[in-house]
Write the structure tokens for this entry.
Amino acid sequence: MKNYRNFCIIAHIDHGKSTLADRLLERTGRVSAREMTMNQILDDNPLEQERGITIKLHAIQMDYTANDGNSYKLNLIDTPGHVDFSYEVSRSLSACEGALLVVDATQGVEAQTISNLFMAIEQGLEIIPVINKIDLPSAVTTIESVKQQVIDLIGCKEEDMILASAKAGIGIDEILETVVAKIPPPAGDPKAPLRALIYDSIFDAYRGVVVNVRVFDGTMKEKDKILFMNTNQTYELDEVGVLYMQRKRTGILEAGNVGYFTAAIRRLQDSKVGDTVTLASNPTTNPIEGFREVKPMVFSGIYPADSDDFEDLREALGKLSLNDSAISFEPESSTALGFGFRCGFLGLLHMEIVQERLEREFNQVIVTTVPNVRYKVITTRDEILWVDNPSQLPNPTLIKEIQEPFIRAQIIAPSEYVGTIMKLCMERRGTMLGQSYLSADRVDMTFDLPLAEVVFDFYDKLKSNTRGYASLDYEYSDYKQGELVRMDILLNGEAVDALSSIVHRQKAHEWGKKLCAKLKELIPRQMFEVAIQAAIGSKVVARESISAIRKNVIAKCYGGDISRKRKLLDKQKEGKKRMKQVGKVEIPQEAFHAVLSID
Amino acid sequence: MRGYYLHIPFCEKKCSYCDFYSLETTQHIDTFVETLLREITMRADAPTSEPVTSVFFGGGTPSLLSIEALTRITEHVRASVPVAPDAEWTMECNPGTVTAESLQGYAHAGINRLSFGVQSFTESELAFLDRIHTADEASLAMQLARQAGFANVNMDLMFAVPGQTFASLQYNIERLLALEPDHISAYSLIYEHGTPLYAKLKKGLVTPTSEDTDAAMYALVIDTLTRAGYEQYEVSNFARPGRRCLHNRTYWFCAPYTSVGPSAHGLLGTTRYWNHRSLTQWTAKVHAAELPEANRETLDTQEQLTEFLFCTLRAEGIPVDIIRDRFGIDIRQALGQHLTHWIEADFIRDTGAHLRLTAEGYRVCDELTLHMLACVE
């Protein structure tokens, strides 16, 4: 056990985490230089590679012979790189004794790095600061200030920081030596009852769920009967092993090690991240702390573009959820969109990923509605209703109070943007909780913000208003009462349920105006005039109208024109068929998430 | 109904808006006539023995043909395919180039219907359209045609021409009506891809008429012509009772037509062919004893239905019984609520036998067509 080292890398997107991981794998002979041309091996999902983020967790065991002559087994546990997945990050940190804090020498510390770092420090991890990308020309001017930020942040000494360039292979040996020297070997009792933490699971079409675990105490062997303490399910271990580039069966996994097992678990949902695995015959009395049920925070309707494809979509969502346990979906129907699903996501990015996977991997053509949060409604009869579809908000006379989820947002940016960021957060009904300077020109601000205000385009706005310099991290705090109302959109007097939204009363007017204007842009002219109205209850707060088509007919259609015209009509007809019909009005699919593109 | 179309691809000067295949020369016209006669022979064995009910000389400018050439062609058509004794024989003419002699010659060759590309009686508009005739020549042409005994004459009129005003359009219509043509084709100017006019539009040298003005001018045209006793039987076509153009009705009823000459499109049964849009290629093929077709297509049932619907809708109405017999579709049922809305909105009239466009309906014909096609698929 003393030769094991379990660690992870904490870094902001683009600060070089994946490149560093690749370099470590290459240096320890886990991958050949030829395989390295594939680059960034841990991110094996094309979507992840494209977005430069890691969604699923991975781990790899490396063999390393240190300068002291001993050989070590280093388990590098990857962490997902997005705020939507902060719970998963916390669980994978729990599986480690140490972390490499990687900071870009030209960029400095970012919000997400700080929140993950604090999580790691809270869990008692040994932090090894690494300043990466030191070979970049611009690092000359920035590196001193970045070093100072790191010193201020973790209270280390300057000589404790490793100067590296993963790309150029600088500092790699020093990192490996420091991992061995500074990160404590796992503590734990191989004789004690089994205590293992599930930090990730993946679905394998042939073996069912493959569970990734860190064993703290005891030993797990094939054929053992195990118990998942939170779900209270028992299984028999089929296969146990460690994670190399592929899975390597060892038959046994002992205290201190990181590896995987299979146990004929059919659904990903049955193996919950954070759960404790123990032996059914000799269970531990001390389950690992920190488990919680992951709950979706952001909701959106997903409908098939062609209503005949409802069953296909159901199947696709079912298959997708095999390897994404965080998504939830329930059938729902809308008068505008027909039959579809109300889907729940961890956050906005997770939502985008799911939508993209449905289209790319499952070839679904989908219409999505504007995302919203889950509201807590207290009725006049003191019942509690959870509403995750605005059109289902009860009649105002039945509502005593509506509560909405809030987040605690941490924003780090150059100090010149303080005013801009304050303004943005105030516009989004935020309250500043605190502000501190990381260095003379870098500020760390904390806000209390309604999640509903963040799910629209907050992140994009924040980025564009600060020329990309601000970084954001957030965690969910609690539900608070708000002056919230449902705003309906009416087309020629008919309410379109899929366009309803829940907004703050004070912003309703402004919002309604913008939404009507946007819809006017998106809904094509029809053969009659279309009136667009935004209404709260029976009170219209904004209106626009789309004038009717005055003339649409080609004057000439003779022998030589007919074939060409038929082909043109066929093409145009496809566009028509993608329109959704509400009453007499045809609405293009883009209109259903129109608010996402409102300024 | 069976049509026969001959494309004569020569012009003295091309009009800026025209996208029909035509060359600004008469140099090769003799070889062309010989080649055309050969194609007529090649196309003699059409898969139908139905007599031809209409023959149409289009272009280009068919009136550039000599009387002798024209006579050879008409005789050869008659010798190659059965032609009904009362068939309609139309010839497109440029009002600036006809004479009393030439018109008499056409009549002798068997032409019994003339179509003059008048377009406008306002000189500035004629200049904009690159027409080579003057307003007075148009009037003279009509006079000569009547003297030569033509009882069936069409005149083309164009509106929504840049620079055109309601007053000038009104004036054009009045001048036109004063000539008492039997048939009027009134077109809204189209900016066709590949024409000099289109290039000008793209360069911003032309300001197209706004949709509102275009619509209002169209309404003015429909209203004035209808009041003057012309029946609208297609988006752009108006005729005195009994003077509807049989040849065009053949197109709009998806009835068969043989076509000869470069770029000509023919439809025989469910097969459509189109000839090479190049005099050289077309000539070479015919001389090699091959059909000079660039391509052909066989329409499946859905495509036949699509064409039948949009062609009949824009013309004399969708024949409810024929749609049912030929395609097994109850069109009223297929359109359902839409039809009710459209009838209420006065876009469509249900005559019992047909679903016909109203004047309001013609204005949005293409939009209605799309909705209908989406309904019947």
In short: Residues 505-522 of chain A form the longest helix (18 residues). Residues 484 and 504 of chain A are 4 Å apart (CA to CA). Chain A has 14 helices and 34 strands.
